[in-house]
Structure formats: C-alpha cells, structure tokens
Amino acid sequence: MSSTLTPSTIALIKATVPALEAHGLAITTRMYERLFRDPAMRDLFNQSHHGATGSQPKALALAVLAYARHIDDLGVLGGAVERIAQKHVTLNILPEHYPAVAEALLGAIQDVLGDAATAEICAAWGEAYWLLADILIGREASLYRDLAHRPGGWNGWRDFVIESVAQESEVIRSFVLVPRDGGAVARHAPGQYLGVRLEIPDRGSLTRNYSISCAPNARAYRITVKRQAAAGPVSEDAAGPAGEGAAAPAGLVSNWLHASAGPGTIVRLAPPAGDFFLEEGTGPLVLVSGGVGLTPMVSMLETLVETDSTRPVWFVHAARNGRVHALRAHVRALAERASTVRVRTVYSAPEATDVPGRDYDAAGLITAEDLAAATPVDRATYYLCGPKPFLAALVHGLARLGVPAERIRYEFFGPADELAAPDRAAA
Predict the structure, then answer these.
(1) In angstroms, rounded to a whole number, what is the distance separating the alpha carbons of residues 41 and 99?
(2) Which stretch of 15-24, 43-52, 97-106 has the lowest confidence by average pLDDT?
(3) Domain covering 285-425: architecture
(4) Single pTM value for the model
(5) Contacts 24+ apart (CB under 8 A), 106-114
(6) Which of 32, 125, 183, 427 has the largest CB neighbor count within 10 A?
C-alpha cells in the first residue's frame, strides 16, 4: 500500500491526531447517527454492535486514529485493510455505498469539532478518506471476482434452506444450510465465516456473520449459534467477526434462530470470507477456543482429520460446564480417527454431574502458561477464538512468553478494538 497524498495533506491529517484522541468516539458515534438516517444504509450492516456497548463506534474510532497516525506509512495498516475488505464482501458493500459514508464522516467531524474543523482540515480528510476508499474498493473488487468465479461461488445474497438442526448444548444449535437452487457451494477456508441475512417479523432484514463449523465441501455449510440472553448489553450471537450496524436488542437474531428457524426455513447468505483461517504447513498446531468460539476450530479440526494431515494438533477448549459444552462428542470422535490429535477440556465451573477425566480434564481457566507447559511453544502456531477477556489473556500471555506474532492468530466476537496494537485493532 502506498500513499499518494500531498505532504501538506499528510501534515494536516497528522495534526488532527490529538483531536481524534480526545473526540474520536464522539465523531464515529455521530457518523453512524448520520449514516443510518438512510434505512438502506442502515440495513446493509450488522445492527448488534451499536447502542448500549457502542463497540463498533469504538472500533472505528481506533481505526480512524490508527489511520491518522500512520498516514505517512500506510503499509503498517495492510492487515487491517484486508480484514475490512473481507468483512465488506459478506455485507455486499459496493462502490456506490462509499459516498454516503464520506458525507457522514465529514459531517460528523464538523458537528463534533465545530470551528476547529476548518475548510482545510475537512478537505484533507476528504482526500484521505477517498485514498483509503479506493484501496478498499479495489481489494473488494478482486475478492468479488474471485468468489464469483470459484466453483459454486456467487456474489451478493443467495437463498439457502435450513436442511437440519442439531442441539449441541443447552444454549447452542447447529444449522446445516444448502442452496435453494440445488447448486454447489464455494469451498471455504477452514476458519472463515458467512454473512447471514434474515427476515424477522416486525424487525425487517437483519445481518450477522457466523463462522462455518464444518470442513470445506461443495454441498453445504454448517453454522453453530449460541442463544444469547435476550436481556443484557452484550450480543455474542456467533463465533465470528460481526460487522457494523444500528442498535438492536442483544440476542435478537440468535433467539429467533433457536425459537423459530427449522428445516425448510429460508436464509440468505453472502459467500465465505475472512482472513482468519487455517494455513498450510507442517508444524504443530494448537487450536484454542472459549465457549462457542470453538466453531472455526472444529472446521479446522475436521479438515485436518479428513485430509489425513500428519501435523501434531492440540485441541484445547474452555467451557463453563458440560451443559453448555457444544460438539464434545463430535470433537472426541474426530480425535479418535487421528493419532496426531490431542484434546484437552477445561471447565471454569464444573457441576456435580461433570466427571473429571471423563467430561473434562481440568477445572479453572486456561492460561498462557498452561499452554506453554503442554504444547511445543517454541515451534507451534496458535489459533485462538473466543470472548475478548479470554483472548486478551492468551494473546498477550503467549507474546510475553516469547511466541512471535506470526505464530499467534486469533478471531473473536464483534469488531476488533483494544485487544491488540492499532494496526490489528483497525479491523
């Protein structure tokens, strides 16, 4: 990625860093308010990360700040740009949507900063916005072309039918989805997610991202969804990165899927996307998950077993107890098929009916030190997925133990923000 901004524009953008540090969240919150005056724009996005928690405005504020800080060295943000582009293709973001975002962002800067938002500063930010927008539009066009030309591939929204439903735990269900047109599906990279659009009575169109929990194949996808409590501020509908959107009650989509969706229900899917996926190699792998964060890990594990991989694999999972532990029997069955796979389960609050050695291996919390003691920390690649506190402890803990960043890969619920350094947070 290279900058084509003039030196004067770069200087003006960098001069706004203190203002963004102080008012960035107010600007991005206002930007979404302006943007979602248009229902068509509002409906493009996942609506679960606005409102009480404001997680998406926080994430965008950090992204804008990172962009300003690195405006003279945008190569630092290459990974963040890829994550944004991947997310956008699951929301069917197109070039014609970018002008509305530009108008909302520049209007928000003027609303929040008032007289400090001079004509020169607004012009500089307009130029900077369109530089980044053009980079994203170009990358997204490439992704759309690739997805459309894959066997079974498509662009935009495609009708799928729920073929079957499986109760995986008290709060988690799996849904197998097949194309309504009877055609093939694009094979995903293990760890990727789908954009899912649902028509919910009295709520209209709602979009979520759900990790695919099966190995790649040409026939169907499986998503595994946790039923989130309807009350409460946090929505963790699925293991997978959720996009932007206007405020919606926590758990609205997951509760509807659990209560109302069954065989024959029609859903609309965008094709698989995401930059968190199992990469080829020969070295040892450690797949670590918390709660419903196991879904992309199961996709990876199924793939490794079904392809007769000889890579040593540690599948480490944390759950509260056996009642909410999903896919336990399935994971064990996969491990029995491959002598290279070791499974370890940790319950944070085991119940009297949970038997040590049978249902779980240890009680408490998974720590980086535990992983280092049980796995080849000097050469293993760690894939992690789960709630933010779980990941923050393990990502930073492994780094402190000397595991290099290129061997720590992670995905978590919702938009990225303060979990990592600004270039990772800009997703």
Answers:
(1) 11
(2) 43-52
(3) 3-Layer(aba) Sandwich (3.40)
(4) 0.89
(5) 107/30, 107/31, 107/34, 108/27, 108/28, 108/30, 108/31, 108/33, 108/34, 109/27, 111/30, 111/34, 112/23, 112/26, 112/27, 112/30, 113/19, 113/23, 113/27
(6) 32
pLDDT at 376: 96
Of the candidates 121, 18, 125, which has an alpha carbon nearest to the alpha carbon of residue 69? Answer: 18
The tokens describing 374, both together, are 């049980």
The token pair at 243 is 């996009």
3-state secondary structure of 165: strand
- In this structure, what DSSP letter does residue 354 have? P
Q: With 0-12 CB in 10 A as exposed, 13-18 as middle and 19+ as buried, what is 407?
A: middle
In the numeric block, the tokens 């595991």 are attached to 403
Catalytic residue among 32, 140, 193, 411: 140
Q: Quick one: 358 exposed, middle or buried, by C-beta within 10 A (0-12, 13-18, 19+)? A: exposed
Q: Give CATH for domain 158-273.
A: 2.40.30.10
98, 103, 127, 163: the catalytic one is 98
- Name 343's bridge partners: 315
Q: Is 98 a catalytic residue?
A: yes
Q: How far is 11 from 283, CA to CA, in rounded Å?
A: 45
* pLDDT 10s digits, 270-326: 999 999 999 999 999 999 999 999 999 999 999 999 999 999 999 999 999 999 999
Chain region(s) in the chain for CATH 2.40.30.10: 158-273
pLDDT tens profile 224-254: 999 987 644 333 344 444 333 334 566 889 9
Across 4-10, average pLDDT:
93
pLDDT at 197 over 90: yes
Q: How buried is residue 229: exposed, middle or buried, by Cβ count under 10 Å (0-12/13-18/19+)?
A: middle
Dist CA 403 CA 382 (whole Å) = 9
